[in-house]
Amino acid sequence: MALDYPALLDDLRTESTNLIAVLTGLDASEWDIPTPSPGWAVRDQVSHLAYFDDTANDALRDPNRFRIDAAELMKNGMGFPDVIAERYRPITPTDLLSWFERSRADLLAMFQQSGPRDRAPWYGPDMSAASSATARLMETWAHGQDIYDALGRAHPTSPGLRSIAHLGVSTFGFVHMLNGLDVPEIAVRVELSAPDSDEIWTWGSEDAVDRVTGPAEDFALAVTQRRHLDDTRLTVTGPTAQSWMSIAQAFAGAPGPGRAPSTSATLQSGVTR
């Protein structure tokens, strides 16, 4: 998949605009509605996005400051996202929305000023600006999905789905190592149908026996662990593909717990299996 950095930033901007529009229309009580993420309300999803927007900005603008702050945060262990959620829970919805709007605008401006190959530290290996933008797109889509689910609303089709799916595929080796497993040498073919056209997005060898096929949105839901695999329309063929999809995650950090089948969301997307 060839990189189109300006288009990637446009996709991030669109996903951000859609989510902010929904948040702007909420009353104060709706910010406390529980989301499918255990212990997290709508407000916690938003503070998570705003906080890590700011740190992604810091990583590009002032890498040394980022490394110091990241080391301090990670003293709490891999559960530091919950620490952040609790820390910012007292913020009023008005201030929280203003924070997210500012942090996202500042980050988009920083990405615009950066070259796609510019390097920045993160809470693991260093990342390029393009990889950081892709990660922020994926995070916005995933945490946004939790918000849409909590509010009982459909998630607008994202122009960034292909980038999110690509991230899900490219973390194949990472997720095996993260779970203490050998990286399989067997190739997996991924074929996903685009949401608004007859186009099929593909990764891997055409000759691969192990395959994952189905709608791109469902693949994104699976690799961001917003749906259990049984609640998607994906077809997973072969033991390597099945093992991978049982642990797949497109996000950094500790192995995700995933979601229980049929009970973790309102299934606004209408996915079935």
In which range does the helix fraction lie?
Answer: 40-55%
* Biggest beta sheet attributes: 4 strands, mixed
Low-confidence stretches at least 5 residues in length (pLDDT < 50)?
A: 264-273
Strand order of the largest sheet: 4-3-5-6
Give a quick rundown of the structure:
This protein is an alpha+beta fold. The chain has helices spanning 5-24, 42-61, 63-73, 80-87, 93-113, 129-151, 161-170, 172-178, 216-223, 239-247; strands spanning 119-120, 127-128, 188-193, 200-203, 210-215, 235-237.
Question: Please, could you describe this protein's structure?
Answer:
- The chain is of the alpha+beta class.
- The protein is 50% helix and 8% strand.
- The chain is built from 10 helices and 6 strands, in the order H-H-H-H-H-E-E-H-H-H-E-E-E-H-E-H.
- The strands form 2 sheets. The protein has a 4-stranded mixed β-sheet with strand order 4-3-5-6. A two-stranded antiparallel ribbon has the order 1-2.
- The longest helix has 23 residues, at 129-151.
